[in-house]
Amino acid sequence: MEPDQRLQRPPSLVPNLADWRFEHYLTMRLLPLFYILLVGGAAVAVFGIAAACFWISTTVGLIASAIAPLLLLVIVAVVRAALEYLIMAHRIMRIIERMDALPDQVRGLSHRVDGITRQVDSLTGNVQDIHQDLMHVRPLLRSAGFPSRLLAFLKAPTIR
């Protein structure tokens, strides 16, 4: 493993649990464990209640056993939606953190664009000067027939 990759590796889980300043987020790393614990807890609770219903009466227990899988499915769907909402909020938070750096980047970019604008203005001025000089020399070149002789020379096949 290269030294750069070791530096970029996220710190281990145990020291992050003792991070009292909350400099590192554990949300994304603990979310799968949290999901498993919530689904497992929901399954134990639902089937525990169904089992307890058998103590009340066999009929109530059978009805609870029939409803238990559907109830577990609804609970798992709600837990999944809630955790996906947390993931979305976490991603939005990361995007906002990256956007905090934009003003400094834009400030530097603005300075560079101003430099490019000055260069383009300078080039435009030079092109306009050349154009004006050519417009002053144009009548002299036409009277000497220079452009037509130059074009004829360029079009003629060269025999050497």
Topology:
Blueprint: H1 3-8, H2 13-17, H3 27-56, H4 58-99, H5 102-144, H6 146-155
Helix pairs in contact: 3-4
Explain what you see.
The protein has 160 residues and is an all-alpha fold. It contains 6 helices and no strands. The chain has helices at 3-8, 13-17, 27-56, 58-99, 102-144, 146-155. The radius of gyration is 38 Å and the shape is elongated.
Briefly characterize the structure.
The chain is mainly α and about 160 residues long. The protein has helices at about 5-10, 15, 25-55, 60-100, 100-145, 145-155. Helix 3 runs antiparallel to helix 4 (about 60-100).
The quaternary structure here is: single chain
> Helices and strands: which structural class?
mainly alpha
Basic shape: elongated
How many helices? The count is 6
Percent range of helical residues: over 70%
The largest sheet, given as strand count, sense and whether it forms a barrel, is: none
Radius of gyration over all CA atoms, rounded? 38 Å
**Strand/helix succession:** HHHHHH
User: Uncertain segments of ≥5 residues (pLDDT<50)?
Assistant: 1-8
Distance between the termini: 66 Å
Q: How many beta-strand elements? A: 0
What is the mean predicted local confidence, pLDDT? 80
What portion of residues belong to β-strands? under 5%
